[in-house]
Each structure stands twice: as C-alpha cells, then as structure tokens.
Amino acid sequence: MNLDRKYALVLPCYSSTDPPTVSTIQNLVECGYKVVVFSREFKFDSYDSVVAYTGRQFLSFKRIHMLQRILIWVSAFWTLRKILKKYDPAISVAFMHSQVAMISFFKKYKFIACIYDIPSLAFAGKIDKLFITAGLKNLHKAELVWCSDTFKAEITKQDAHLETLPLVCHNCPPVNYLGERTPDDIRWLQNKVSDLGAIKTAQPYLIMTRAGAVGRYGGIEETLVALKELPDNYIFLLMGRPTAAFKIVLNDLIAENKLERRVFLIENPDELMWKKVLLGSDAGHLIHIRPSSISDAVAYDLNSSLSNNRLFQYMAASIPILSYNDKRLDMIHNEVECFKVVDVNADIAASIKRLWLELGNEANLRIRMGMNGRDAHLKKYNWEVQFAPIQSALQLYR
C-alpha cells in the first residue's frame, strides 16, 4: 500500500469518545499522522486525517456464553491483523491492559500504552483475567507507558514489574475545552432548570451539578437528604447515564423526599449540553464513598478520583468543587484552593448541608474558589501541559 503519510493506530478501551482517547487522537493528528481508530463506534467525522475502522469492541460482555466471548476476541485479533497489514502503523496507542495484550502479540509493531484504570484480577472473569495478565506481562514492551495519576503509576510499575515509573498525564481537558464563564452561561442554566420544573423562588437558583458517575456510592442519596433541609433555591442537577436499576432507586428517593422540583436528571447529554451545564453551574459534585461490597471496595481502593475527568472539567468551568476526604486527594486539595471537603467517615448528609450552605451564602467565595480552579487548569491541569512529554515521544516515530 502506497502511503503518503505515516499512520498511527489507536486501540480504545471503553469508548473512542472517552476524553483522554479523544485528546490523544487530536494530538496524533497534530503530530502529522493519519490516525486509524479500531472501535465499534466512532465520532470523528470532522477530521480528514482520522480513519474509522470499526470492529469488535474490546469490552467485557457479562451476559453471553464464554464460547461467544472467545469468538469475539478471535475476531478482534483477526481484524487487528488486517488493520496492521493494511496500514503498517509507525506507532500504536493501546488504552488499557487488554489492548496492550493484543498489540504486543504482533511483535513487529511499536506501541505506547495508557493505563487509566486498575482492574482487580481477583474479581475479573476468566477471559478478562487472561487478557489483563497478558497485558501486564507485556507492558514492558511498550515504548512508553503513561498513567492518569501517581497512584496508578505506582501500582502499574509494581504489577507489571517495570524498571521505571510510568509517566503521569492527568485526564484533563485541553485549554480550549471551555471558555471563560459568563453571565449568559449562568442565565442559560437558570432558565433551563426553571423549564425543567424547579420551584419559582425570589433568589437565583444555587445549582450543584454531578457530571457523570450517576450511581451508587456517589454520595447522591446523602445529598438528597441534605437538600431536603436547604432552602428551595438549592438545586441538585445530575448529568450522565445511570443504570436502569439505579434510576428507579433515584426516582423513588426523589419522590420519598418530595424533591421532584429540586432534583433533575439530564440523561445522555451531548457534548454541547455537557459544557453548557458545567459553565452554568454554581458548584461541582465529586463525592465518592467506599462501597460496602468487597468487589466494589477493591475497585475503590485501586482507583482514586485523581483520574476522574469531571474533577478537571469542574476546574475548567471555574466552579468550586464539593470533594471528599480521601488521602489520595490531599495533594490537590492542598495545592488548589477550590475544594470544600465532605467528611465521608461521619454524618455525610450533615457535612454536605454545612458546606453547601457555606458556598451558597458567599457568592464571592464561590467566585474566588472557581477562579483558583480555573487558574490551575490553565497553568497546569490541562491536556497540553500534561501530555507534552508523551507528544514529544510520539513525534519521534514520524
């Protein structure tokens, strides 16, 4: 195949639309590559330099027979082989262990790897465990490895027996992800909440938004309890994709606490809606609670909120953040004065109520904290700064 430009192959994990994957693809294009993305779904139509090569998604299918799962992986390997032969990529980017296992099977091809989640081998299925183990075993073959926070880097170094610590690139949005917050942004969300049915109040709404991870152990139930004791202009906005089971639980709790006009769910928002809601909000909700179930507790212990996209999106949106007391977050809590920290080891609802009231009663405090977060985003916690060492390495293969 006559190629006028070098190709780079991207192997997404959960979705090609995950923010770190999107940003990596954009950086590859900026480096001068034609990019091939091997994913079941694809949304990069605006990029002439990106090729969609759809195939089997590398996910965990829990409700299908093991033989079907094996056939899916065999199909994925076969398709990957055809892609490699057709495009002969100068470099591949493998997101997560299973994709590392796949690309490292083809020894001729160079690759770099991103690990932004630490799976629990103890609770993985047989096929998943096989691929995760293979990915760890072969991670040392990568030209470069990066993780989304320091804790994941340390765990990855240990589990994969790497000689050096992986680079750290936080899952931050680029500097142009959001513009400066304006009165029009705030007015838009105020009107949106009113249209959703919020109680008419003399005071402006004080809107706290949880962007993503709408499910159990997110402090959502405790926030509803706190909200019940706050003035009517305090609004809790949830934005994301809850499971059907949790949506039933959520609706029951809202009805039980008579909060139908103060708690709203925006399901499956598009990118424009996501950004508009962030810019119009008064605070961001980041709380996570250690689960009671053993398997979920292990996942919690292995993965901190330092890798959450929404943490840095809240910073970019210039809004204060309602966080929680996890020692892994102490560094950023102390570094950037944009957090109110809920005590999840005590009365969580009471802590949320107290801190939300503090934010609600002090407009200047909210503005100052939001500006602190925005400043940290523009100076350090943005994709351009975080990804720079990796981009330099990618340019070497041009």
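[next item in queue]
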Amino acid sequence: MLKAPFVAVFWTFALAIPLTIIALAGVAYVDLHFSEIAQAIANFEATTSASGRGWLAELSSRAPELEGMLIGMVIMLTIYLFIRKPAKAALESKK
C-alpha cells in the first residue's frame, strides 16, 4: 500500500527537477540573448516574405481576405445545419 505513493512521488520529482533546471536555463539564455533572437527573427521574416516587409505586415494586409473566407465558411456551415434536418425528414417521408 505504501509503494504506490512512493513511486508517484519519486517519478514526479524525477521528471520535475530536471525539467525545472532546463526551463530555468532556457529563461536565462533568452534573457541574455533576447535582442539577438529578435533581430534574427526580423531578418528571417524580411528575407522570406514576398515584399521584404515581414510576415506580420504581409498577414495584416491579407486579413480582410481571411476574414471574408472565415465568415463565408461559418455562413455555409450554419445553412447546412439548418437545412439538414428538414432535408432528412423529407427523404424519410418519401420512403
């Protein structure tokens, strides 16, 4: 009976302690190199986007298209949900 709580505590600590150390080391690394990381991301965005402006500018200029597609999909799915029951009832009544 006492073996189960011991095993649970052991594996909790066996997983938590190394992962906590890794997380603290990651936070320290990001804190020391944040400006370099941000600059590397900005340079990567500028070189890989179509106009060289970066992904955020590209995506924000295409936001109306994306919103229109999403609204259209929601409208079509809503129509489908309202039409499905009457269509199913009509098919069953023909049988």
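[queue empty]
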